[in-house]
Specification:
Endonuclease, Chain A; 3 domains; two-stranded parallel ribbon; 18 helices; 20 strands; globular; PLD-like_dom
Protein backbone atom coordinates (compact mmCIF):
# COMPACT_ATOMS: atom_id res chain seq x y z
CA UNK A 1 0.00 0.00 0.00
CA UNK A 2 2.80 2.41 0.88
CA UNK A 3 4.49 1.70 -2.44
CA UNK A 4 1.24 2.32 -4.32
CA UNK A 5 0.64 5.55 -2.40
CA UNK A 6 4.17 6.70 -3.24
CA UNK A 7 3.60 5.96 -6.94
CA UNK A 8 0.30 7.87 -6.87
CA UNK A 9 1.96 10.81 -5.15
CA UNK A 10 4.75 10.91 -7.73
CA UNK A 11 2.29 10.70 -10.61
CA UNK A 12 0.22 13.52 -9.15
CA UNK A 13 3.36 15.59 -8.67
CA UNK A 14 4.44 14.92 -12.27
CA UNK A 15 0.97 15.80 -13.53
CA UNK A 16 0.93 19.16 -11.76
CA UNK A 17 4.50 19.85 -12.89
CA UNK A 18 3.44 19.19 -16.49
CA UNK A 19 0.43 21.49 -16.08
CA UNK A 20 2.68 24.18 -14.63
CA UNK A 21 5.08 23.84 -17.55
CA UNK A 22 2.24 23.98 -20.08
CA UNK A 23 0.83 27.08 -18.40
CA UNK A 24 4.16 28.88 -18.65
CA UNK A 25 4.61 27.79 -22.26
CA UNK A 26 1.12 29.08 -23.05
CA UNK A 27 1.95 32.30 -21.20
CA UNK A 28 5.18 32.77 -23.14
CA UNK A 29 3.54 32.13 -26.50
CA UNK A 30 0.59 34.38 -25.67
CA UNK A 31 2.95 37.13 -24.51
CA UNK A 32 4.50 37.16 -27.99
CA UNK A 33 1.08 37.80 -29.50
CA UNK A 34 0.37 40.45 -26.86
CA UNK A 35 3.62 42.26 -27.67
CA UNK A 36 2.84 42.11 -31.40
CA UNK A 37 -0.80 43.21 -31.16
CA UNK A 38 -1.34 45.32 -28.03
CA UNK A 39 -1.98 48.94 -28.98
CA UNK A 40 0.29 50.72 -26.47
CA UNK A 41 3.77 49.99 -25.14
CA UNK A 42 2.48 50.19 -21.57
CA UNK A 43 -0.23 47.65 -22.31
CA UNK A 44 2.20 45.32 -24.06
CA UNK A 45 4.60 45.44 -21.10
CA UNK A 46 1.81 44.81 -18.60
CA UNK A 47 0.49 41.82 -20.51
CA UNK A 48 3.97 40.39 -21.18
CA UNK A 49 4.94 40.54 -17.51
CA UNK A 50 1.67 39.08 -16.21
CA UNK A 51 1.49 36.36 -18.89
CA UNK A 52 4.96 35.12 -17.97
CA UNK A 53 4.69 35.44 -14.19
CA UNK A 54 1.09 34.39 -13.49
CA UNK A 55 0.01 32.62 -16.69
CA UNK A 56 -2.72 30.61 -14.90
CA UNK A 57 -4.76 33.78 -14.47
CA UNK A 58 -3.33 36.00 -17.22
CA UNK A 59 -3.72 33.64 -20.20
CA UNK A 60 -7.50 33.21 -19.91
CA UNK A 61 -7.82 36.91 -19.05
CA UNK A 62 -5.92 37.92 -22.18
CA UNK A 63 -7.99 35.74 -24.48
CA UNK A 64 -11.19 37.05 -22.88
CA UNK A 65 -10.46 40.77 -22.61
CA UNK A 66 -6.99 41.49 -23.94
CA UNK A 67 -7.64 42.02 -27.63
CA UNK A 68 -9.09 45.04 -29.41
CA UNK A 69 -9.81 43.55 -32.85
CA UNK A 70 -12.92 41.45 -33.37
CA UNK A 71 -11.20 39.03 -35.74
CA UNK A 72 -14.12 36.78 -36.67
CA UNK A 73 -16.27 39.75 -37.69
CA UNK A 74 -13.40 41.20 -39.73
CA UNK A 75 -12.89 37.92 -41.56
CA UNK A 76 -16.55 37.42 -42.38
CA UNK A 77 -16.88 41.03 -43.52
CA UNK A 78 -13.95 40.57 -45.92
CA UNK A 79 -14.81 37.04 -47.07
CA UNK A 80 -18.16 37.98 -48.61
CA UNK A 81 -18.12 41.74 -48.76
CA UNK A 82 -19.10 41.47 -52.41
CA UNK A 83 -22.54 40.28 -51.29
CA UNK A 84 -23.32 43.30 -49.11
CA UNK A 85 -21.40 46.06 -50.88
CA UNK A 86 -23.72 46.34 -53.94
CA UNK A 87 -26.57 47.46 -51.66
CA UNK A 88 -24.37 49.91 -49.78
CA UNK A 89 -22.88 51.16 -53.06
CA UNK A 90 -26.38 51.70 -54.43
CA UNK A 91 -27.17 53.93 -51.47
CA UNK A 92 -23.87 55.83 -51.66
CA UNK A 93 -24.24 56.51 -55.39
CA UNK A 94 -27.87 57.62 -54.99
CA UNK A 95 -27.09 59.83 -52.00
CA UNK A 96 -24.21 61.59 -53.72
CA UNK A 97 -26.29 62.11 -56.87
CA UNK A 98 -29.61 63.20 -55.32
CA UNK A 99 -28.44 64.76 -52.03
CA UNK A 100 -24.99 66.18 -52.72
CA UNK A 101 -23.08 68.20 -50.18
CA UNK A 102 -22.19 71.43 -52.04
CA UNK A 103 -19.65 72.45 -49.41
CA UNK A 104 -17.42 69.34 -49.59
CA UNK A 105 -15.33 70.82 -46.79
CA UNK A 106 -12.42 69.17 -45.01
CA UNK A 107 -14.77 67.95 -42.27
CA UNK A 108 -17.00 66.04 -44.70
CA UNK A 109 -14.01 64.70 -46.60
CA UNK A 110 -12.43 63.38 -43.40
CA UNK A 111 -15.61 61.70 -42.18
CA UNK A 112 -16.34 60.06 -45.51
CA UNK A 113 -12.82 58.66 -45.74
CA UNK A 114 -12.98 57.46 -42.12
CA UNK A 115 -16.27 55.55 -42.44
CA UNK A 116 -16.83 55.27 -46.22
CA UNK A 117 -20.36 56.59 -45.89
CA UNK A 118 -21.52 59.89 -47.41
CA UNK A 119 -22.61 63.05 -45.70
CA UNK A 120 -26.24 63.67 -46.68
CA UNK A 121 -28.61 66.60 -46.85
CA UNK A 122 -32.39 66.58 -47.01
CA UNK A 123 -32.76 65.15 -43.49
CA UNK A 124 -34.95 66.05 -40.56
CA UNK A 125 -33.67 65.22 -37.08
CA UNK A 126 -35.71 65.34 -33.89
CA UNK A 127 -34.12 65.30 -30.44
CA UNK A 128 -36.02 63.03 -28.04
CA UNK A 129 -35.59 63.55 -24.32
CA UNK A 130 -36.10 60.86 -21.65
CA UNK A 131 -38.09 57.65 -21.62
CA UNK A 132 -41.69 58.67 -22.15
CA UNK A 133 -40.90 60.81 -25.18
CA UNK A 134 -38.39 58.32 -26.59
CA UNK A 135 -40.55 55.19 -26.41
CA UNK A 136 -43.79 56.82 -27.47
CA UNK A 137 -42.03 58.09 -30.61
CA UNK A 138 -40.46 54.69 -31.35
CA UNK A 139 -43.70 52.76 -30.78
CA UNK A 140 -45.69 55.18 -32.99
CA UNK A 141 -43.13 54.62 -35.71
CA UNK A 142 -43.33 50.83 -35.31
CA UNK A 143 -47.12 50.99 -35.60
CA UNK A 144 -46.73 52.73 -38.98
CA UNK A 145 -44.45 50.03 -40.47
CA UNK A 146 -45.78 48.56 -43.72
CA UNK A 147 -42.83 46.73 -45.30
CA UNK A 148 -40.08 45.98 -42.77
CA UNK A 149 -38.98 46.76 -39.27
CA UNK A 150 -35.40 46.55 -37.96
CA UNK A 151 -34.97 46.49 -34.18
CA UNK A 152 -31.59 46.32 -32.44
CA UNK A 153 -30.82 46.95 -28.75
CA UNK A 154 -27.95 46.19 -26.41
CA UNK A 155 -30.21 45.50 -23.41
CA UNK A 156 -33.76 44.17 -23.65
CA UNK A 157 -35.52 43.17 -20.46
CA UNK A 158 -38.61 41.04 -19.99
CA UNK A 159 -40.39 43.72 -17.96
CA UNK A 160 -43.39 45.89 -18.82
CA UNK A 161 -41.44 47.99 -21.33
CA UNK A 162 -39.84 44.92 -22.85
CA UNK A 163 -43.26 43.33 -23.26
CA UNK A 164 -44.52 46.47 -25.01
CA UNK A 165 -41.65 46.21 -27.48
CA UNK A 166 -42.47 42.54 -27.96
CA UNK A 167 -46.13 43.32 -28.61
CA UNK A 168 -45.18 45.96 -31.18
CA UNK A 169 -43.05 43.43 -33.06
CA UNK A 170 -45.75 40.75 -32.83
CA UNK A 171 -48.41 43.15 -34.11
CA UNK A 172 -46.19 44.23 -37.00
CA UNK A 173 -45.50 40.61 -37.97
CA UNK A 174 -49.22 39.84 -37.90
CA UNK A 175 -49.78 42.74 -40.34
CA UNK A 176 -47.35 41.09 -42.74
CA UNK A 177 -44.41 43.36 -41.92
CA UNK A 178 -40.99 41.69 -42.11
CA UNK A 179 -39.55 42.10 -38.60
CA UNK A 180 -35.90 41.52 -37.73
CA UNK A 181 -34.84 41.66 -34.09
CA UNK A 182 -31.18 41.71 -33.02
CA UNK A 183 -29.99 41.86 -29.43
CA UNK A 184 -26.60 41.56 -27.74
CA UNK A 185 -26.08 38.20 -26.09
CA UNK A 186 -24.25 39.62 -23.08
CA UNK A 187 -26.26 42.80 -22.60
CA UNK A 188 -29.56 40.87 -22.85
CA UNK A 189 -28.34 37.71 -21.13
CA UNK A 190 -31.36 37.70 -18.79
CA UNK A 191 -33.87 37.72 -21.63
CA UNK A 192 -35.83 34.44 -21.26
CA UNK A 193 -36.31 31.92 -24.05
CA UNK A 194 -40.08 32.32 -23.75
CA UNK A 195 -39.80 35.98 -24.84
CA UNK A 196 -37.81 35.03 -27.93
CA UNK A 197 -39.86 31.91 -28.73
CA UNK A 198 -43.07 33.95 -28.86
CA UNK A 199 -41.47 36.24 -31.44
CA UNK A 200 -40.13 33.39 -33.56
CA UNK A 201 -43.45 31.56 -33.54
CA UNK A 202 -45.11 34.68 -34.96
CA UNK A 203 -42.63 34.98 -37.81
CA UNK A 204 -40.20 37.53 -36.34
CA UNK A 205 -36.61 36.80 -37.33
CA UNK A 206 -34.58 36.81 -34.12
CA UNK A 207 -30.81 36.64 -33.65
CA UNK A 208 -28.39 37.45 -30.86
CA UNK A 209 -25.10 39.18 -31.50
CA UNK A 210 -22.61 36.62 -30.16
CA UNK A 211 -18.98 37.72 -30.01
CA UNK A 212 -17.87 34.11 -29.35
CA UNK A 213 -19.59 32.47 -32.33
CA UNK A 214 -16.35 31.93 -34.29
CA UNK A 215 -15.18 28.42 -33.32
CA UNK A 216 -11.55 29.43 -33.85
CA UNK A 217 -11.89 32.40 -31.48
CA UNK A 218 -14.29 31.26 -28.77
CA UNK A 219 -13.08 33.59 -26.01
CA UNK A 220 -13.75 37.07 -27.36
CA UNK A 221 -15.84 38.00 -24.34
CA UNK A 222 -14.83 41.64 -24.16
CA UNK A 223 -16.70 42.79 -27.26
CA UNK A 224 -20.26 44.11 -27.10
CA UNK A 225 -22.75 45.33 -29.67
CA UNK A 226 -23.82 48.50 -27.90
CA UNK A 227 -25.93 49.88 -30.75
CA UNK A 228 -29.59 50.86 -30.33
CA UNK A 229 -31.33 51.14 -33.67
CA UNK A 230 -34.91 51.06 -34.92
CA UNK A 231 -35.63 51.47 -38.66
CA UNK A 232 -39.12 51.61 -40.20
CA UNK A 233 -39.47 50.92 -43.95
CA UNK A 234 -36.17 52.68 -44.72
CA UNK A 235 -37.89 56.02 -44.08
CA UNK A 236 -37.56 56.60 -40.31
CA UNK A 237 -34.79 55.66 -37.88
CA UNK A 238 -34.12 56.05 -34.17
CA UNK A 239 -30.77 55.77 -32.40
CA UNK A 240 -29.20 56.91 -29.15
CA UNK A 241 -28.60 55.95 -25.56
CA UNK A 242 -31.80 54.29 -24.39
CA UNK A 243 -32.15 50.52 -24.01
CA UNK A 244 -35.35 48.60 -23.29
CA UNK A 245 -35.93 48.40 -19.55
CA UNK A 246 -38.23 49.90 -16.94
CA UNK A 247 -35.29 51.72 -15.33
CA UNK A 248 -35.37 54.08 -18.32
CA UNK A 249 -38.89 55.01 -17.20
CA UNK A 250 -37.64 55.95 -13.73
CA UNK A 251 -38.31 52.54 -12.15
CA UNK A 252 -34.85 52.22 -10.57
CA UNK A 253 -35.12 53.34 -6.92
CA UNK A 254 -31.40 54.06 -6.65
CA UNK A 255 -30.73 55.90 -9.90
CA UNK A 256 -34.04 57.46 -10.97
CA UNK A 257 -34.84 59.68 -12.69
CA UNK A 258 -33.00 58.23 -15.67
CA UNK A 259 -31.84 61.04 -17.97
CA UNK A 260 -31.42 59.94 -21.58
CA UNK A 261 -31.68 61.09 -25.20
CA UNK A 262 -32.20 59.62 -28.65
CA UNK A 263 -32.70 61.07 -32.09
CA UNK A 264 -35.30 60.35 -34.73
CA UNK A 265 -34.12 60.92 -38.28
CA UNK A 266 -35.94 61.02 -41.60
CA UNK A 267 -34.27 61.40 -44.98
CA UNK A 268 -31.34 59.80 -46.79
CA UNK A 269 -29.43 59.34 -43.52
CA UNK A 270 -31.85 56.49 -42.69
CA UNK A 271 -30.16 54.31 -45.32
CA UNK A 272 -26.82 55.04 -43.66
CA UNK A 273 -28.28 53.80 -40.34
CA UNK A 274 -29.26 50.57 -42.12
CA UNK A 275 -25.65 49.87 -43.12
CA UNK A 276 -24.37 48.81 -39.65
CA UNK A 277 -27.58 46.84 -39.05
CA UNK A 278 -26.98 45.01 -42.34
CA UNK A 279 -23.42 44.11 -41.31
CA UNK A 280 -24.43 43.02 -37.80
CA UNK A 281 -27.33 40.97 -39.13
CA UNK A 282 -25.08 39.32 -41.69
CA UNK A 283 -22.54 38.47 -38.98
CA UNK A 284 -25.15 36.77 -36.83
CA UNK A 285 -27.31 35.08 -39.44
CA UNK A 286 -25.41 34.88 -42.73
CA UNK A 287 -28.52 36.38 -44.30
CA UNK A 288 -28.70 39.60 -46.32
CA UNK A 289 -32.14 41.16 -45.85
CA UNK A 290 -34.00 42.82 -48.69
CA UNK A 291 -34.06 46.48 -47.61
CA UNK A 292 -34.93 49.76 -49.31
CA UNK A 293 -31.67 51.39 -50.37
CA UNK A 294 -33.18 54.27 -52.36
CA UNK A 295 -32.84 57.40 -50.18
CA UNK A 296 -35.63 59.96 -50.06
CA UNK A 297 -35.75 63.50 -48.68
CA UNK A 298 -37.55 64.09 -45.40
CA UNK A 299 -41.18 65.11 -45.78
CA UNK A 300 -40.77 68.10 -43.45
CA UNK A 301 -38.80 70.08 -46.01
CA UNK A 302 -35.88 70.72 -43.64
CA UNK A 303 -32.45 70.08 -45.08
CA UNK A 304 -30.13 69.24 -42.26
CA UNK A 305 -26.65 67.97 -42.99
CA UNK A 306 -26.21 64.59 -41.29
CA UNK A 307 -23.41 62.08 -41.00
CA UNK A 308 -23.95 58.58 -39.57
CA UNK A 309 -20.89 57.15 -37.83
CA UNK A 310 -20.98 53.39 -37.11
CA UNK A 311 -17.81 52.33 -35.27
CA UNK A 312 -16.43 49.12 -33.84
CA UNK A 313 -13.50 46.76 -33.24
CA UNK A 314 -13.71 45.39 -36.79
CA UNK A 315 -12.89 48.77 -38.39
CA UNK A 316 -9.69 49.52 -40.29
CA UNK A 317 -8.88 52.31 -37.83
CA UNK A 318 -9.88 53.13 -34.28
CA UNK A 319 -12.70 55.12 -35.80
CA UNK A 320 -14.55 56.09 -32.64
CA UNK A 321 -11.44 57.46 -30.91
CA UNK A 322 -10.32 59.22 -34.10
CA UNK A 323 -13.74 60.83 -34.53
CA UNK A 324 -13.81 62.28 -31.03
CA UNK A 325 -10.20 63.45 -31.33
CA UNK A 326 -11.15 65.20 -34.55
CA UNK A 327 -14.12 66.92 -32.91
CA UNK A 328 -12.06 68.05 -29.92
CA UNK A 329 -9.32 69.43 -32.15
CA UNK A 330 -11.82 71.27 -34.38
CA UNK A 331 -13.56 73.15 -31.56
CA UNK A 332 -12.89 76.89 -31.64
CA UNK A 333 -14.94 78.28 -28.75
CA UNK A 334 -17.25 75.59 -27.31
CA UNK A 335 -16.85 71.88 -26.57
CA UNK A 336 -19.49 70.31 -24.32
CA UNK A 337 -19.46 66.56 -23.73
CA UNK A 338 -22.02 64.41 -21.91
CA UNK A 339 -21.14 60.81 -21.06
CA UNK A 340 -22.21 58.55 -18.18
CA UNK A 341 -18.92 56.66 -18.45
CA UNK A 342 -15.99 59.06 -18.67
CA UNK A 343 -12.73 57.09 -18.70
CA UNK A 344 -10.65 58.69 -21.50
CA UNK A 345 -7.20 57.56 -22.57
CA UNK A 346 -4.12 59.77 -22.58
CA UNK A 347 -4.55 61.09 -26.12
CA UNK A 348 -8.10 62.24 -25.37
CA UNK A 349 -6.98 63.85 -22.09
CA UNK A 350 -4.20 65.70 -23.94
CA UNK A 351 -6.61 66.86 -26.65
CA UNK A 352 -9.07 68.17 -24.04
CA UNK A 353 -6.25 70.01 -22.26
CA UNK A 354 -5.07 71.59 -25.52
CA UNK A 355 -8.61 72.68 -26.40
CA UNK A 356 -9.01 74.38 -23.03
CA UNK A 357 -5.60 76.02 -23.36
CA UNK A 358 -6.67 77.38 -26.77
CA UNK A 359 -9.48 79.20 -24.96
CA UNK A 360 -12.27 76.76 -25.81
CA UNK A 361 -15.08 76.47 -23.26
CA UNK A 362 -14.60 72.77 -22.44
CA UNK A 363 -17.20 71.21 -20.14
CA UNK A 364 -17.67 67.54 -19.27
CA UNK A 365 -21.06 66.44 -17.93
CA UNK A 366 -21.10 63.15 -16.03
CA UNK A 367 -23.43 61.62 -13.43
CA UNK A 368 -22.77 62.11 -9.73
CA UNK A 369 -23.71 58.49 -9.11
CA UNK A 370 -22.86 55.98 -11.82
CA UNK A 371 -24.22 52.44 -12.10
CA UNK A 372 -20.64 51.18 -12.55
CA UNK A 373 -18.58 51.44 -9.36
CA UNK A 374 -15.16 51.14 -11.06
CA UNK A 375 -16.03 53.77 -13.66
CA UNK A 376 -17.27 56.08 -10.92
CA UNK A 377 -13.98 55.72 -9.06
CA UNK A 378 -11.65 56.06 -12.05
CA UNK A 379 -13.52 59.15 -13.24
CA UNK A 380 -12.18 61.04 -10.22
CA UNK A 381 -8.60 60.44 -11.35
CA UNK A 382 -8.98 62.78 -14.35
CA UNK A 383 -10.24 65.83 -12.47
CA UNK A 384 -6.89 67.34 -11.42
CA UNK A 385 -5.11 67.06 -14.78
CA UNK A 386 -8.09 68.44 -16.68
CA UNK A 387 -8.90 71.15 -14.15
CA UNK A 388 -5.41 72.67 -14.30
CA UNK A 389 -5.87 73.23 -18.05
CA UNK A 390 -9.26 74.89 -17.55
CA UNK A 391 -11.59 71.97 -18.30
CA UNK A 392 -14.72 72.02 -16.15
CA UNK A 393 -16.25 68.73 -14.97
CA UNK A 394 -19.88 68.89 -13.90
CA UNK A 395 -21.52 66.12 -11.88
CA UNK A 396 -25.23 65.74 -12.52
CA UNK A 397 -26.99 65.29 -9.17
CA UNK A 398 -30.64 64.75 -10.15
CA UNK A 399 -30.83 61.10 -11.20
CA UNK A 400 -28.61 59.09 -13.55
CA UNK A 401 -27.42 61.00 -16.61
CA UNK A 402 -27.08 58.33 -19.31
CA UNK A 403 -27.13 60.12 -22.67
CA UNK A 404 -24.07 60.51 -24.85
CA UNK A 405 -23.88 63.85 -26.64
CA UNK A 406 -21.41 66.35 -28.01
CA UNK A 407 -21.75 70.03 -28.89
CA UNK A 408 -19.02 71.78 -30.88
CA UNK A 409 -19.23 75.56 -31.30
CA UNK A 410 -22.65 76.74 -32.57
CA UNK A 411 -23.62 74.36 -35.35
CA UNK A 412 -22.20 70.84 -34.90
CA UNK A 413 -23.68 68.34 -32.48
CA UNK A 414 -23.71 64.57 -32.10
CA UNK A 415 -25.93 62.10 -30.25
CA UNK A 416 -25.40 58.37 -30.15
CA UNK A 417 -24.40 55.32 -28.16
CA UNK A 418 -20.65 55.92 -27.67
CA UNK A 419 -19.27 56.86 -24.27
CA UNK A 420 -15.97 58.61 -23.60
CA UNK A 421 -14.21 55.44 -22.51
CA UNK A 422 -11.93 52.78 -23.90
CA UNK A 423 -14.78 50.31 -24.27
CA UNK A 424 -16.64 52.57 -26.69
CA UNK A 425 -13.46 53.76 -28.41
CA UNK A 426 -12.09 50.28 -29.12
CA UNK A 427 -14.22 47.36 -27.91
CA UNK A 428 -17.89 48.12 -28.57
CA UNK A 429 -19.87 48.38 -31.76
CA UNK A 430 -21.41 51.86 -31.57
CA UNK A 431 -23.35 54.32 -33.71
CA UNK A 432 -23.35 58.12 -33.58
CA UNK A 433 -25.37 60.67 -35.52
CA UNK A 434 -23.62 63.99 -36.25
CA UNK A 435 -25.80 66.93 -37.30
CA UNK A 436 -24.45 70.13 -38.80
CA UNK A 437 -27.32 72.55 -38.27
CA UNK A 438 -27.55 75.62 -36.03
CA UNK A 439 -31.20 75.08 -35.09
CA UNK A 440 -30.61 71.49 -33.96
CA UNK A 441 -27.40 72.50 -32.19
CA UNK A 442 -29.44 75.04 -30.24
CA UNK A 443 -31.75 72.24 -29.07
CA UNK A 444 -28.76 70.23 -27.91
CA UNK A 445 -27.34 73.32 -26.20
CA UNK A 446 -30.60 73.83 -24.30
CA UNK A 447 -30.51 70.19 -23.19
CA UNK A 448 -26.98 70.70 -21.84
CA UNK A 449 -27.91 73.94 -20.09
CA UNK A 450 -30.91 72.28 -18.45
CA UNK A 451 -28.68 69.52 -17.08
CA UNK A 452 -25.84 71.84 -16.10
CA UNK A 453 -28.41 73.57 -13.89
CA UNK A 454 -28.94 70.24 -12.10
CA UNK A 455 -25.22 69.70 -11.67
CA UNK A 456 -22.35 70.83 -9.50
CA UNK A 457 -18.85 71.79 -10.56
CA UNK A 458 -16.36 69.15 -9.45
CA UNK A 459 -12.84 70.00 -8.28
CA UNK A 460 -9.54 68.31 -7.53
CA UNK A 461 -9.72 69.69 -3.99
CA UNK A 462 -12.66 67.35 -3.29
CA UNK A 463 -10.48 64.34 -4.02
CA UNK A 464 -7.59 65.70 -1.97
CA UNK A 465 -9.90 65.99 1.04
CA UNK A 466 -11.18 62.43 0.77
CA UNK A 467 -9.77 59.57 2.88
CA UNK A 468 -6.51 57.97 1.74
CA UNK A 469 -8.29 54.65 1.10
CA UNK A 470 -10.68 56.36 -1.33
CA UNK A 471 -7.82 58.12 -3.13
CA UNK A 472 -5.93 54.82 -3.39
CA UNK A 473 -9.05 53.12 -4.78
CA UNK A 474 -9.31 55.89 -7.39
CA UNK A 475 -5.74 55.26 -8.56
CA UNK A 476 -6.23 51.48 -8.63
CA UNK A 477 -9.45 51.90 -10.65
CA UNK A 478 -7.50 54.05 -13.12
CA UNK A 479 -5.20 51.08 -13.78
CA UNK A 480 -8.19 49.07 -15.00
CA UNK A 481 -9.43 51.82 -17.31
CA UNK A 482 -8.53 49.94 -20.53
CA UNK A 483 -11.07 47.16 -19.82
CA UNK A 484 -13.84 49.10 -18.05
Amino acid sequence: MKKWAEITRRRRKSFFAALLALAHIAGALTSVQAVMETRTAQGAIAWAVSLNTIPYAAVPAYWAVGRTKFEGYVKKRQDRIDETSPFVRQFIDSAKKDFPDPDQDIEAHFLERLIRLPTTRGNDVQLLRNGEEIYSSIFRGMESAEDYLLVQFYIVRDDDLGKKLQQQMLAAAQRGVRVKFLYDQIGSRKLPHSYLDALRQSGVKVHSFISTRDRFRPFQLNFRNHRKIVVVDGRQAWLGGANIGEEYLHADPKLSPWIDAMVKVEGPAVQAVQVPFLEDWYWTSGDIPDLDWAPQAASTGKSRKVFVLPTGPADRFETCALYFLHMINNATHRLWIASPYFVPDEQIVSALQMAALRGVDVRILIPENCDNFMVNLSGWSYVAELEKAGVEIYRHTNGFLHYKALLVDDSVSAVGTANFDNRSFRLNFEITLEVEDEEFAQEVKEMFLHDFADSRLSSAKELEERHFIFRLAVRVARLFAPIQ
